[in-house]
Design brief:
The complex is a heterodimer of chains A (308) and B (201). Chain A is an alpha+beta fold. Chain A contains 9 helices and 8 strands. The longest helix of chain A is centred in the first third of the chain and has 26 residues. In chain B, strands 1, 2, 3, 4, 5, 6, 7, 8 and 9 form a 9-stranded antiparallel beta sheet that branches. Classes of the chains: A alpha+beta (308), B alpha+beta (201). At the A-B interface, helix 8 of A face helix 3 and helix 4 of B.
Chain lengths: 308, 201
Amino acid sequence: MQIKMIRKKTQQSYIARIINVVNYIQKNLDNELTLEELSQKANFSRYHFHRIFSGMLGESVKELTRRLRLERAAIELRTSTTSILNISIAAGYESDMAFSRAFKAKSGLLPSKFRKSEQARFPCLSLSSIRYVTNEHISSFEPFIDKELNMKVMIKQVNEILVAYVSHQGPYEECGHAWDTLCGTLAPIGLLGGDAKMIGVSYDDPDIVAPELLRYDACISVDEIFSTTDKIGFQTIASGHYAVTTHIGSYETLNETYQKLFGQWLSQSDYESDDKPCFEIYLNDPESTEPEELITDIYLPLKEKDNG
Amino acid sequence: MDKIDLFKLHKADYIAPKKPQICNVQNAHYLAIDGVGGPGEENFNDAVAALYAIAYTVKMTRKKNNLGDYVICKLEARYWSINKQCLSEQDKSQWHWQLMIRTPSQVKTSDIEQAAKVLATKGKTASVNKVKLIEHEFSQCIHMLHVGSYEEEHRTIEQMTTFASEHQLSATGEHCEVYISDPRRIPEERLKTILRMPVNS
């Protein structure tokens, strides 16, 4: 009972903070806002801000901005005589053609038809209940996933892990080369097997970083640093508390579990994420395992609490 | 060079229906390690770890040296008792087993010796020295997919025994399994295991 109340309270606090961001976006709808700026508004650390945001709202900052602009345009169409071209430009489109296409995709009607039709409903475009409002602050919203939280999360104290690693930049599907280099170097000297862990460190949120710029380290835990080729580096995975959940299934759907972990679990917990990357431990071999049986533990770094 | 996937190449050996069926598993190469005792006990788990350590070390070393790549096959096991008694009547501590991973014939004993040597120097389990390369022919078997916990296998085995007598086949007393699912994380009730019963006609 008490835990439930605390949960409710922390979720309210996450909601209140996200609302600040949403209102700030609505007020500055014509500006390009940076994630730094937005995370500061809600007192979130920059590193994982976007995952919390999109996890709770079901849409990215970009998508929300675009959608609010379209909703504002719909109101303009109905209540003003401003030309469609000018409304298009105000909504951030380069031409009325592009605007019309986007508007129709979302509302089912071309802007010109929408303007003339009294019956046409305002397009209801959102996954969360956030709508563009003209004269007031948005005061609350339903988190995108409001079902019972059915995710097992454990808080684990992790000791520092020394790893040998190979960096990869590009789409996650292509990180196999990094793994080949790493395993090809470690296998001949007897460092595979036993309790050697296969760890992936991903530095970016694939929702906001282009695939070709995604940074990833393929890592294998080792007991000590050794001399090797310059393709292999050594680093430590920081000790501390981590929220750990298990993803079962294809690596292609890992991002959904990340979204749920940040948007659902974290926002209902009384923890804050720390400014360190998440990491993944792969528990089986993707080459010989059916994708639906792949098991991955996801580690989300948490800030240490001040008062123990 | 194409990656060899023996599991897919020999589908007939590794896709079993939920009803008993006769299959014939030809001679093949395996990495193997022998032991005595109940499955899941310490020396058994140690043997599994040693077998996989050798399997991946050999695979990645050969790949690195451009000797071709292949997929590591599923773990298989043979169980028998020295006095030919039925295993279910025998205390588990008396079970003899051989754990196996099917391996392309290109893999040589020298690959395994080299892998064991480097793994031992890095302090991995001493059991790596017990892993060997064998050829084995299961020949004629009855096989069937068992879904569920290992403890409930007796029901599946009963069906296979009935099937054997209906077809005038006699079991050799050996019991074999192919572990399709990963018992570390797949819930018991969903574990998939192919049971093989070698038979003489």
